[in-house]
Amino acid sequence: MGFVDFMTDAGLSMLESWVTTRSYVSGYGPSQADVASFKALPGPPKVEKYPHAWRWYKHIASYQSEFSSLPGDPSKAYTTYGPEKSEMTLNPKDAPKETAADEDEDDDLFGSDDESEDEESKKKREENLAAYKKKKEGKTKPAAKSIVTLDVKPWDDETDMKQLEQNLRGIEMDGLTWGASKLVPLAFGIKKLQINLVVEDEKVSIDELQQQIEGDEDHVQSTDVVSKRLALCIVSG
Are 32 and 74 in contact (CB under 8 A)? Predict the structure, then answer.
């Protein structure tokens, strides 16, 4: 089926659903699929209505200077990407709630509520049903996380890189975990800090994180996203 007109709520809802568990439209890195989809949008989707689509749009916007060199076929229309079937829920908030019919199906798993059923059998069936529903409610659900590599560039070769990294790691956000880091030579004795981190996409905005890092104006000149890939993690429901 593919994406539909992003000028409509249906099209934006489809994009929102598609990137809820994805960092990119296709594959594990930016490509012409993202470029075509990005250019089909008149601007960033409303963050309050389409938070995942907004996150994806802001992330792809950081690659604008590289659009022409990204892999893929630039002649393909954005409508060739996206879901192959139309049965997907258009917007997570519009996902159907469990209905009485669904509960009846659960009941059927443990036998019908027949009037001829004796009290002992009925009691046993109700106990089994209660145990099943409790187990069903306690199931875990996947939370979308991304593994990100950032480049943090200092002003010059006299910048205290240890202090820079210390200030950076001092930034705390719910859903943010700092990882390994290393110093990478640039030129004229200047080294940049390259650091890995894991973020929960629904909780951490990479743009906001970069702004916080660049707020250390005494040490940080700029930051760049080197790579970002999706990593699914299971958390308690």
Answer: yes
The C-alpha atoms of residue 205 and residue 66 are separated, in whole angstroms, by 21
- What whole-number distance in Å separates Cα of residue 175 and Cα of residue 124? 43
Q: Where are the beta strands (DSSP E) in the chain?
A: 141-154, 176-185, 191-200, 220-235
Contact 26, 2 (CB under 8 A): no
List, for residues 101-147, the tens digit of each pLDDT value.
455 555 555 454 455 556 777 777 788 777 777 776 655 556 688 89
Measured in degrees and rounded to the nearest 5, phi and psi for residue 234 equal -100, 130
Q: Is 63:228 a contact under the CB 8 Å cutoff?
A: no
Q: What is the pTM of this model?
A: 0.41
Is residue 226 classed as helix, strand or coil in its secondary structure?
strand
Among the listed residues 173, 201, 222, 234, the one whose alpha carbon sits nearest the alpha carbon of residue 24: 201
C-alpha separations of 20 from 51, 90, 140, 166 in Å: 9, 11, 17, 33
Using the Cα atoms of residue 96, residue 98, residue 100 and residue 102 in order, give the sign of their dihedral.
positive
Query: Is residue 175 a contact partner of residue 202, using CB atoms and an 8 Å limit?
Result: yes
**Which tokens sit at 204?**
């951490």
Is-contact 234 144, C-beta < 8 A? no
